[in-house]
Amino acid sequence: MKNFFIAGLLCLSVLLSGCTTVAPEAGEEGVKVHKPWIFGTGGIDMTPVETGLEYTWLSTDYVIVNMLPRAYDEDLDDATSNDNTLLDFNTQIQLQVKDNKSPVLIKNYGVDWYNSVIKEVYRNTVRGYISKYGPFDLMSNREVLDSINLFVKNDIQNYISLLSSKQGELPIDVVNVVVGRAIPNERQKAEMDATAAATQAKRTEESRREMLVAREAAERQRAIADKAYQEELGLTTDQFIQLRAWEIIKEKNGANIDVLFNADATNKMWNVRR
Question: pTM of the entire structure?
Answer without folding.
Answer: 0.62
